[in-house]
Automatic annotation (TrEMBL):
PROSITE patterns: SULFATASE_1 (PS00523). This is Sulfatase N-terminal domain-containing protein. The keyword Cell membrane does not apply. Pfam families: Sulfatase (PF00884). The keyword Calcium applies. Residues 58-473 form the Sulfatase N-terminal domain. It comes from Olivibacter ginsenosidimutans. Keywords: Calcium, Hydrolase, Metal-binding, Signal.
């Protein structure tokens, strides 16, 4: 592997990293080595020197977007302009075979800890209605699963987080605490954002550090960007040479889709050709850019999605407006991230900052139902209405789409499939690449040799923590604050930064989200979808099935069929059984059992409200 950072800096850092590790991580457990006499005059003091990061150690910025499909951003062939993402990718690396867990909280838990989500007790959510009293499911990350913030703070970094956290148990999320599972309890020096899974963009459930605070009335993305900049400036004023770690996780582009008029009208009339044409155009762009294989084919439109040219004029008007707003939302998010980047340039920190940008914590959302949603009492998910009824209601509220009053704003399912081009299915579908494959951009001005390079090595969110540590020349600690740490499960991607032909080192990965599951091994993938009971109020999720009655395991060779169009289960039954056995082994090793599905959650939620 070629070493890409400055040799002198790396050698100096490597020489002291072991010493820093031993001194800092165990400092609370060190025996006193001085002398305690009866009087001060016959005693000897011993002080523990504060840990300082190595000179010129890079800053680290992790950016994690919410609910963005693979084919949305222009950086990966999408038709929604994201010039900031484009610039980072064109001067860094695009990872096209990178994966999330298929839903928000498990992705975030895995990302921050470098361990599989069920291993850190976050197989589902930290919400009371969706967590269960089992080790993999209680939504409480244990102290022996330290976060990247806890690790880097021990090595002399300041650590900041802004935006969506999503990992604090509901029962703890009041100003009465306890606070050990708030961001500051998990290693962040400062936090500004919200603790839950979603929030209103203009009336957010806002928290700063360990207390709820009042919003200033502006869009949440503007507020978190300002706060991130203020955290950095305050630190640099006090300790100019100290590096920082920033976790920037906007609510965007999760519903509700709300933004200022200039942004929601930015793409007026741009998507009138509809979702079928969008998919075809994006697919061509992805192939031309080398983002997908040259011999790839586009999967058919999901049979549950109507062809755009079969929609009524009213349907087209309403559905196009939903995506205009969404596109403006994504471009606006890109703009806010650019504000952060421009500030790093202004203060002379940009060239010494590693940026890892994950465009989405799962695939595009299917939670907008077939027809889109505007307000919570207007065709809310789980309350089926006909297209005619819903579109009529949407026309009456047409001017509300994308405004602060759009409390449940989300686009229709056809746009979710379009935004996930070239893959099938969507968010929550852990069995499908459309649920789990998200773009990753790696940017470091001093070190990436191939500007604009494309990397096809297999990766997962658990890989970013070990990647960051190896990049910095640091070891994962054996103890944090006297607590012995569990094994880091991710695989560093550093080997691939300057070697596009290096074989993948992350060779096995399981996925499970409330019934939907899959297992990956050396290019092969076995998957099982999950059909929710229509009678439990979640009928819109059935659209994951070409045949609603088909719930058999499927088998794909992703090396030859990257977007899962050819089921090989009958051709290679031995390989399928081998992978099913591997899934069982991974499930047992990672606290995944008992398997809890969406029907169980529906029953649990109903019983909890009695």
């Amino acid at each position: 592997m070629k070493i890409f950072y400055k040799t002198t800096w790396f050698l100096a850092l490597s020489a002291i990293s072991a010493t820093v590790h031993a001194q800092n991580i165990t400092q609370q457990q060190q025996p006193f080595k001085g002398v305690i006499g009866k009087e001060y005059s016959d005693s000897k003091e011993v002080w523990t020197d504060p840990i300082r990061a190595p000179k010129d150690a890079p800053n680290v910025v992790w950016i994690l977007l919410d609910d963005v499909g693979f084919g949305a951003s222009s950086a990966f062939g999408g038709l929604i302009p994201t010039p900031t993402f484009d610039s980072l990718a064109n001067n860094g690396l695009r990872y096209t075979n990178f994966h999330t867990t298929a839903i928000c909280a498990p992705t975030r838990a895995a990302l921050l800890t470098g361990r599989n989500s069920s291993r850190v007790h976050e197989a589902g959510f930290s919400h009371k209605w969706a967590s269960f009293g089992f080790p993999g499911w209680d939504g409480r990350i244990p102290s022996d699963k330290g976060t990247i913030a806890e690790i880097l703070r021990e090595y002399g970094y300041n650590t900041f987080a802004v935006g969506k956290y999503g990992l604090t148990p509901d029962q703890d999320a009041t100003d009465g605490g306890p606070f050990d599972r708030w961001p500051l309890g998990k290693g962040f020096d400062h936090f500004f954002g919200f603790l839950g899974s979603a929030t209103d963009q203009y009336k957010p459930d806002l928290v700063e550090d360990n207390a709820h605070v009042q919003t200033d009335g502006r869009h949440l993305s503007a507020q978190i960007t300002d706060k991130a900049i203020s955290f950095i400036d305050r630190q640099k004023k006090a300790t100019p040479n100290k590096p920082f770690f920033l976790y920037y996780a906007p609510a965007a582009t999760h519903s509700p889709h709300q933004l200022e008029q200039k942004w929601r009208d930015l793409y007026k009339g741009k998507f009138e050709k509809g979702w079928d044409v969008y998919r075809e155009e994006v697919f061509k762009r992805q192939k031309a850019a080398g983002i997908i294989p040259a011999n790839a084919t586009l999967p058919p439109r999901n049979p549950y999605i109507k062809a755009w040219d079969k929609l009524s004029a009213d349907e087209k008007k309403v559905y196009a407006r939903f995506f205009e707003v969404y596109a403006g939302y994504l471009t606006y998010t890109d703009y806010e991230i650019n504000r952060l980047i421009q500030h790093l340039k202004e203060i002379g920190q940009f060239d010494n900052t590693l940026i890892l940008l994950v465009i989405g914590d799962n695939g595009a959302s299917k939670e907008g139902t077939f027809y889109g949603t505007i307000k919570r009492n207007n065709n809310a998910a789980g309350k089926p209405q006909s297209a005619e009824e819903t579109v009529k209601a949407h026309l009456q509220n047409f001017d509300v789409i994308g405004t602060p009053e759009a409390s449940n704003g989300n686009y229709p399912l056809g746009w979710a499939q379009a935004a996930n081009t070239p893959f099938k299915y969507w968010k929550q579908d852990a069995h499908a690449e459309g649920g789990t494959r998200n773009p990753l951009i790696v940017f470091y001005p001093k070190g990436i040799q191939e500007k604009g390079g494309i990397r096809q090595q297999y990766g997962h969110v658990i890989d970013l923590l070990p990647t960051t540590l190896e990049f910095l020349g640091l070891q994962a600690p054996t103890d944090i604050r006297g607590i012995k740490q569990d094994t880091i499960q991710g695989t560093s991607l550093l080997y691939s930064f300057n070697d596009k032909n290096a074989p993948s080192r992350h060779t096995t990965q399981y996925y499970y989200i409330y019934g939907s599951r899959s297992i990956y091994k050396d290019g092969w993938k076995a998957s099982l979808a999950f059909k929710i009971d229509d009678n439990k109020g979640a009928n819109q999720r059935n659209v994951s099935f070409d045949d609603p009655n088909h719930i058999d395991w499927q088998l794909f060779n992703l090396n030859e069929d990257f977007n899962e169009q050819h089921n090989l289960a009958k051709k290679y039954p031995e390989k399928l059984e081998e992978l099913k056995q591997l899934f069982d082994e991974e499930a047992r090793k990672n606290n995944l059992y008992p398997l809890i599905n969406w029907d169980d959650v529906a029953d649990h939620r109903q019983n909890a409200t009695k």
